[in-house]
Amino acid sequence: MGMTKQNVAGGSGDNSGINVMSDLYTASLSMYPASLQKGGGYIKVSQLLKHLEVNSAQRISSWVDSMKASSPTHVKSPPSLTEDNNSWMLHHPSALDMFEQIIGASQGKQIVMFLDYDGTLSPIVDDPDRAFMSNKMRTTVRKLARCFPTAIVSGRCRDKVYSFVRLGELYYAGSHGMDIKGPAKGSKYKKGDQAVLFQPASEFLPMIDEVYKELVERTKSTLGAKVENNKFCVSVHFRCVDEKEWTELAQQVKSVIKGYPKLRLTQGRKVLEIRPTIKWDKGKALEFLLESLGFANCTNVFPVYIGDDRTDEDAFKILRDRGQGFGILVSKIPKDTNASYSLQEPEEVMSFLQRLVEWKRPNLCRQQKV
């Protein structure tokens, strides 16, 4: 586990293990001739599958191993758990404990907030349709948006996230940033009233609908499996699936996506996600929103991204590469991450956001008096 990453801004993190299919592709490339290797390490799904038929069982086994790795119940306990945890916390300290240091680093800069939804603003639940945020959290996020430009960046369908959050003054980036829209009435942080609207994967909509319908049909025999259409991506939740059935579920997903070389598989917390192969993710969405707010190539901006999932690592890495702001990982266990700080659960996220609001309000009052 990489434990030497620098806090706040700077440093370069290892982003390996974030994209499940990327890992599987890269691991498989050495088995094939150079003529099949394209784009510096990726080949089409259809080509890869042709060459993996002989090792199909091994491939499915790799998928299942990765599915197990995403489950907290399968986190391997190191020989000295306390020592390992202390070492991790040394390099990814609590954002609450380090609040004054964080504020100090942001002095003279515009803070911009980016928040994941599931596991960050709401608890992880068995039924994704019931991942409700508390009224107290909603009130906190509303106050936050009055102090700083604020965006929700989620793998969920944008409309679904909005139905959970119900705050019109926020920016929303759904489907891992492939569906972005600004505040309904414009933003006080951006000139003009026209809402930001960006959908870089619109051409994939018919294909995503087809895959969704096929996956619903193929997985209905697997008890507990839930397929969710997130507009520009499809999520196959296996949180409620018996582990003995994971191999069968992986085979079902494989049987569908092998017919769609323009789609790729990624993985989150007990969810398999099928997305377009375009180079777009939460990190790209973060950059797009910063540019939309007028902070492109600016040195006086301080982005803060809070998330709990593998897909949030794309945004954490962008912040490290930019040398601006920082990421906060929401996790109760040590994980390899590009984030600089940590929080353990949504309750701590709310406490951190409340402290930001409390810090900003006196400053606003002083600015108004001047």
Would you kindly provide a written description of the structure presented here, covering whatever features stand out?
There is one protein chain. This protein is α/β, with parallel strands linked by helices. It is 39% helix and 15% strand. The chain has 12 helices and 12 strands. The N and C termini lie far apart (50 Å). Belongs to the trehalose phosphatase family. It catalyses: alpha,alpha-trehalose 6-phosphate + H2O = alpha,alpha-trehalose + phosphate. One of its GO terms (molecular function) is trehalose-phosphatase activity.
Please write out the topology:
Layout: H1 20-29, H2 45-52, H3 56-69, H4 81-91, H5 99-106, E1 110-115, H6 135-147, E2 150-153, H7 158-165, E3 171-174, E4 179-181, E5 197-198, H8 205-219, E6 226-229, E7 234-237, H9 246-257, E8 263-268, E9 271-276, H10 282-292, E10 301-307, H11 313-322, E11 326-330, E12 341-343, H12 346-369
Parallel strand pairs: 1-2, 1-10, 2-3, 10-11, 11-12
Antiparallel strand pairs: 3-4, 4-5, 6-7, 7-9, 8-9
Helix pairs in contact: 3-9, 6-12, 8-9, 10-11
GO molecular function, one term: trehalose-phosphatase activity
EC number: 3.1.3.12
Catalytic activity: alpha,alpha-trehalose 6-phosphate + H2O = alpha,alpha-trehalose + phosphate
Q: Could you give a short description of this structure?
A:
The protein contains twelve helices and twelve strands.
| Order of H and E elements | HHHHHEHEHEEEHEEHEEHEHEEH
Q: Which strand order do you get reading across the main beta sheet?
A: 5-4-3-2-1-10-11-12
Tally the beta strands: 12
What's the oligomerization state?
A: single chain
Largest sheet: 8 strands, mixed
Described by the principal axes of the CA atoms, the overall outline is: globular
Radius of gyration: 21 Å
C-alpha termini separation? 50 Å
